[in-house]
Amino acid sequence: MSRRRALLIGSQVGALQGVEGDVAVMGDVLEDLGFTTDRRTGSASSAAGIVAAYRELIADTAADDATVVYYTGHGARERGRGPRDDPEVPTWLQYIVPTDIEDVSGDRARCVLAEELSMLQLELTNRTKNVTTILDCCHSARMSRTPDALPRALEVDLPRADLLRRWAELRADPALASVTTDSNPDAVRVVACSPAELAYERPSAALGGRPHGVLTAALVGVLADRASTDLTWREVRDLVRGAVIEVVRQRPEVEGPTDRLLFSLDTRAQTGVRPVRVVDGVALMDGGALFGAAAGDTYLLVPPRRVAGAPEITAAVTGIVDGRAVLALTGGTVADLAAGTAAWPREVALGARPVAIEPPTSPARPALIAELVRTAHVRVVDDTVGTLATVRLGEDGTQLLDADDAPLYRGTTTPTPTEVAEDVRTLARAAWVRGLASGTGREELGDDVEISWLRVGDPGGDEPLTQGAHLFVGDRLVVRAANRATRTRYVSVVDVGLAGRVAILTSSEPDGISVTPSRAYEVGRSAPGASGLPLRWPTGLPDDTPRSETMVTIVANAKIDGLGQLAQTGVVTRSGTLTTRLGQLLEDLVVGRRAPAQVSGDPVRYRIVPFDFVLHPRPRPPDSPTEPNFAVDERPDDSVRLVTPAPSDHEAPVRHLDLRLTDLDVPGLADRPVRLDLLVAPAGEVVRARTVRLPAGGGLPEGGLLLDEGAVGRFLDLALWVGPDGADDLDDLLALATTAPRADGSSGSIAALVVAAARALEDRVGSGVQPAFRTLLLPDDRFGTGNGVRRRPRAGLLRGEGIAFALELVDPDAR
Q1: Contact by Cβ (8 Å): 650, 210
Q2: Where would I find the Peptidase C14 caspase domain in this sequence (predicted)?
Q3: Nearest to 103 by CA among 61, 158, 52, 151
Q4: Which residue of 109, 120, 636, 788 is 20 to 30 Å from 650, comparing CA positions?
Q5: Cis ω on the peptide bond leading into residue 793 (within 30° of 0)?
Q6: Higher pLDDT residue, 639 or 455?
Q7: What single string gives the DSSP state of each residue in 267-315?
């Protein structure tokens, strides 16, 4: 007798708060679907515990069983090889992060490598072909893409020799010769994002306001719906990706046999086919709300067995009742519908994006709703959580907010309902373009064209860019496509602007720039006289905060017809001349409805490569000298400066912070008076500078020494120097008392202040001043005050050359 069994692993380490909640909600929904769950968290999700639990599942699995392996927590990576190392070794070794990750005793890395997970999955699929793996984590370096979520990536320093040894042993195993981490043909693999992106957690309104992985929250929402029992994994991918990308710029993927029905070996190649029920004389289609059905969607109603000469019955959606779409029939009546009739899509909404209108009592609301419901791109909802956009109607004007609650109109404006609806449609189209996925199956294209991004600098001084790069108005970009294939490839670059406008950057060949084998093409520099793609701030867009922008590169093995339509505005109708499935998909994105496939022959194979960056609304600050090397530098990757978790209903955000020095040891100043100089830069707040003077040896008063107290912003950037006493206080040296600058959120401006402080201290105090401590405090752990942990470090002292100390971080409002 077949069984349903699930192993759920949660590793709550670092600043993550929602892992154990993820295991709970995923376990509950799987049990509702008939699974017996084995939940492993805390010490049970150590490195050894994870492997042991996985092997227990393998040993107890029979051929007819359905199995799920779910992991939620941090993903990480370690440098595998450098430029001169063995080229067979991957650049990065990827792994999940168990709860004992910090234990490196015996030079052993307590982690589970991606290849080790691959081997375990292979052993499981050798027992049963019905395997589903779900990974809600990130395997990339840390970065920020949205200002209201916490990345699920972690940077950990592990024994590299042990990782390389384990990797080599696994790759030498003949069992892995026919399968890799990404391509086991018998396992469905649900991943939170691509290897170059991040997964996030944030409070979920649908799950009680508690923090959860964004993938987990979206997947649970789909699995819990009564209409989900006959979904394919391909349909789940579309539903989950739409829900996720409206919250964060994260692109979930489902790999493997995606035409399988959920947790089954049965398949259904057609997408969007829904059962039809007749209730009280009305034809209803299951799953209408789940699939975002919109008025005007059309279907062909197909009986379980066709009868020769029977009339063709079509249906159009007129509304949604209790989650089911209400159908109006043409060519027949409900009496003609046999039991088991299914609705096959002819032209349906391409996942209508949710939009909220506030307040619900505004007299202008009905007219705006009437405009919005005329498009298949969006649907009006009451809850503002997780929406594509929110329209706020007021007596003094209208404001349109994007998914990050950032305003899109500058000042007081009075756009017409038609103008607002067009701006909302623009945002919806942009969301779809950002969410484009690479081809799968016959449409999959290998990774044979290397895509890289460069910021144009002085001759020979181009700066390579990584995901989440901070860029400035006036910067110039180059997108470089290097063809390593043996055949010509076709490259197109699409820009999704700050206000949602879509532009084709490869306009010289709108259907794709031809790149021959062993050649490279640089978008923005290959044309005569071109010196990079200039970055601009859209006219009329508020310029008080940095915003996220995306460039999407499409690599294909043939010309991409229909691509130019993405940049069109106004009413767009179908051309009827498309020759590729990809072209039809792009046309669907513009029209807002998915039409049945009408192309034949060999499909275009294609790969989507997105590049997300943060654009600042001002020119790049002048280059500053390199900051001094601080004895203790705890800063994470600079891009996390825009990471701000959404506030929870269960706790107020930290608005103020007291910073107290509780221990200090400065051996080199044992016989001299000591000065401590502190520079504090909270995002959006006035920069604070302070000097504290101590007796010889740095003796602290009883109870510690208050170094700083004041407001925090999205982050708090801190630099501390220690040295022999002398000269003026730091605020006088920097003249902050009169200039009172604000920290604008960019690392460049703060670095300039740090360099200026270092220079002033060295010039006025002397070379004995030592850069002691540098950190970036983030709200993801309540600026270090969360979970009752206020001391930094939790035990012992922070140690650097010539200094050892400990700090206490206190939220005064929580006392």
Answers
A1: yes
A2: 3-256
A3: 158
A4: 636
A5: yes
A6: 455
A7: B---SS-EEEEEETTEEEETTTTTTT--TT-EEEEE-SS--TTPPPEEE
- Which residue matches tokens 């992985």? 213
Residue 197 binned pLDDT confidence (cut-offs 50, 70, 90): low
Reported pTM:
0.59
Mean pLDDT of 635-645: 52
pLDDT of residue 737: 43
pLDDT of residue 780: 59
Task: Please write down the HEC assignment for all residues of 537-561.
Answer: CCCCCCCCCCEEEEEEEEEECCCCC
Q: Which of 340-354, 445-459, 638-652 has the highest mean pLDDT?
A: 445-459
Indicate whether 35 pLDDT > 80: yes
Handedness of CA 233, 235, 236, 242 (dihedral sign): positive
Environment class of 47 (CB within 10 Å of its CB; exposed 0-12, middle 13-18, buried 19+):
buried
SS3 per residue for 52-72 = HHHHHHHHCCCCCCEEEEEEE
CA distance 146 to 200: 9
Mean pLDDT of 330-347: 85
Would you list the DSSP string of 407-441?
A: B-S-SS----HHHHHHHHHHHHHHHHHHT-----G
The DSSP letter of residue 499 is T
Q: Cα angle vertex 788, ends 783, 790, to 5°?
A: 50
Name which of 192, 173, 131 is nearest 4 in CA terms: 131
Query: E-strand spans in 12-116?
Result: 36-40, 66-73, 75-79, 92-96, 112-113
Residues found in the chain: 815
pLDDT interval class at 179 (50, 70, 90) = very low
